């Protein structure tokens, strides 16, 4: 899977599936979804998702994410994928502390996931053999996760950032928190990734 925002939802708009297998529809702020192509610095939809209307200036340059809206009507999430935070640990930088990344000019559109760091993946092709060394929940989780781990590289020092699209801060869960905070998309994705 080379592009994170892929697939389609039943309403004719774009859609994605996270590692939990949940489908997330993608909408613009106006409530409409589009799959038309956009070019240059225009705001709009490319590959079935909607670019965020804002651009965020970071230490290394300007980034623009995209908006996802869960099908259950909860607040949307602004997604920034593949944001570099250090130079690739290759050549003379291998096995050294991270070095700040190189700045870029223009706006970096953050819709493509970065490669994951190299790792040995367990053999899960033979279910009965795999279940001898791991619980069934882990096997199911790995089957969903495996397609996202195929693109591996030493150049893997990137972040995926998820921010509430409405500008509200992230919620901290404690004894005084409202009990429905677990329903926010950000929490669902984190909880889904931790599922076993």
From TrEMBL:
Q: Name one Pfam family in it.
A: COesterase
InterPro entries per record? AB_hydrolase_fold, CarbesteraseB, Carboxylesterase_B_CS, Neuroligin/BSAL
- Please report the stretch or stretches of sequence annotated as the Carboxylesterase type B domain: 54-166
Q: Does Nucleus show up as a keyword for this record?
A: no
Annotated spans, Disordered: 1-49
Q: Supply the alphabetized keyword list.
A: Glycoprotein, Signal
Low complexity composition bias: residue spans: 17-48
Q: Does the keyword Signal apply?
A: yes
- Source superkingdom: Eukaryota
Q: Into which family does the record put it?
A: Belongs to the type-B carboxylesterase/lipase family.
Q: What is this protein called?
A: Neuroligin 4-like
Organism of origin is Orchesella cincta (Springtail)
């Amino acid at each position: 899977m080379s592009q994170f925002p892929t697939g389609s939802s039943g309403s004719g708009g774009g859609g994605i599936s996270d590692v939990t297998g949940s489908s997330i529809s993608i909408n613009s702020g106006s409530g409409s979804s589009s799959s038309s192509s956009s070019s240059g610095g225009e705001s709009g939809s490319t590959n079935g998702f909607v670019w965020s209307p804002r651009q965020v200036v970071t230490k290394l340059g300007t980034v623009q994410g995209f908006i996802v809206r869960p099908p259950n009507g909860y607040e949307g999430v602004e997604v920034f994928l593949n944001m570099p935070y250090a130079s690739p640990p290759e050549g003379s930088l291998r096995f050294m502390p991270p070095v700040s990344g190189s700045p870029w000019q223009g706006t970096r559109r953050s819709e493509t996931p970065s490669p994951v760091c190299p790792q040995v993946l367990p053999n899960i092709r033979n279910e009965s053999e795999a279940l001898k060394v791991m619980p069934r929940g882990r096997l199911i989780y790995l089957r969903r996760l495996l397609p996202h781990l195929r693109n591996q590289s030493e150049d893997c020092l990137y972040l995926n950032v998820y921010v509430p699209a409405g500008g509200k801060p992230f919620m901290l869960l404690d004894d005084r928190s409202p009990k429905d905070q677990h329903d926010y998309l950000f929490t669902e994705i984190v909880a889904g990734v931790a599922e076993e």
